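Possible regression after last week's pipeline update?

I re-ran a chain I had predicted before the update to compare outputs. Posting the input and the new output here so someone can diff against the archived version. Not blocking, just want to make sure nothing changed silently.
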Amino acid sequence: MNQHWESLSTEGGKEALLKKIIDQTNEVKKWKSQGKSELEIEKLISEKKQRMYWTLDSGNQLKLQSLKDSIANAINRLHTGLLTINSKTGRIMGYVGGIDYGMSQKDNILEAKQVGSTFKPITYLAALQNGKNPCDFYDNSLVTYSKYENWMPRNSNGKYGGSYSMYGALANSVNTVSVKIQLETGIQPVKKLAEKMGITATLPSVPSLVLGTGNISLIDMVTAYASISNGGRRIQPFAIERIEDDKGTVLYQAKPFYNGNFVASSIKISHLQKMMGSVLTEGTASRIQNYEIPYNLIGKTGTTQNNGDGWFIACSPEIVVGSWVGTYDKRVQFKNTYLGSGANTALPMVASVFKSMSLWNRPLLTNFVYEEDYFDCPPFLEMNANEADNFIKTDSTYLLKRKLRDSILNNSQIIIDSIVDISNKNIPIDSISKQ
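New output (post-update):
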C-alpha cells in the first residue's frame, strides 16, 4: 500500500490530499500564525526528524521521517478485521478486531462499512425464492436508469455484451446483471430476507443495494452467510460458552439460537451454495485454489467504490470465515482493482484459516453435497439473453455435450449415434477414457 496508494476521489490525487491534510495540522497552523512564508513552511514540512511510526513486528516506534511522510504513512495504513464462527451453533472461534489495539482501538468486526459484492448472494437468494433459476440468462448491457437519477451501473472489468446465466453473473460478480436481478426481485423482499438472515443495519432502499452500498458490520455479514452455510438456519454468534463458579457449578451455558424457521427453502439454499461454489472454482475468488484446500468451499468477494474496501467471506458446511481490509480515510485507496480487490487483500487471510483447519488431526471441515454435479447452462454466452435461453434448450451440439458429460459423471455407457458417423452401438467407457 505504501507504494501503490492513490486518492482517486480527490481532485489532484494523493499530492492534493496530502497538502490538504498537512495544511490542517497544528504544526502548519502554528507556522502560519508566526508569519512564516510558504517557502519556509515547505522546507519545515520536508525536514526529517524522529516521529512515531507503526510496524507490524514492533508496534509504535520512533523513525526519522518528514511531516509529509509521517502523514502519508498514517493515512495509507491498511486495517483489517477477521472473524471465524461455527455456522451450526454460532460459537465464535476466532476474533481479530484490528491490527494493533495500541495503535487503533476501533473494532473492525463491529463497525459498519460498505460491503461491496459480498451482499450479492442475499439478493440472488431472494431472486431464487421468487422463482428465478440459476440458468436464467440476462443481457450484460449498460443501462441508464432515469428513475434513479440517470444512474448507470458498470462492471469492474469494463466488459459488456453477450449474456450471463444467473450463476455465471454471481461467479464473476457482474454488476449490470446483478442490478437487473435486484430490480426484478424488488428492494423490500431483499431487505426483509437480509433481516431474517441476521443483518441488523438499516439498509438503503435503492437498487445499488445489491452492489453493497449499505453499511453493514462484519459480524452481521458472517452471521448472514452462516445461514447459507448451514442450510438455512439463522444463528446468533456468541463468545462465552460457559461460566462456572469456583466449585464448578455451571452458572451459564450458551445455547444455540434457533427460531425454528428457515430463512429460505432448503432447495434454494442448495442452489445458492452451488452458485457460490462457482465463485471459488471459476469466478472472482478462483485464486483460493492456489492454497490447495482439500474441501469444496463456497464464498464471495467484495470490493467497494474506488477500491476503498476489500472483503472476502467463505464457508464450509460448519465454518464461516470473513475478513475486511481497508483504510480508515476513504479518500485513500489502491490505484487499481487488481491490487485493491477483496480477492487480493482479504482472501489470503481467509484462505489461510481454512488451510490451517484442513490440516487438523481431527478435521472439523466437510464438503458441501449437491444434488447435481453442474448447472445445465454455461456461465456466459456471446449472444443476447433470449437467444441464450433458446440455445441451451434446443442446440443439438450443446445438448450432446451435456449428454456426454452426464454419461461420464454417472459412469454409464454413452450411445454414439449416426450423426457423429461412428457407430450406433453402445460403447462402454473404461477407466482410462473416463480419467
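Follow-up from reviewer: compared with the archived run. The two ends are 45 Å apart (CA to CA). Marking as no regression found.
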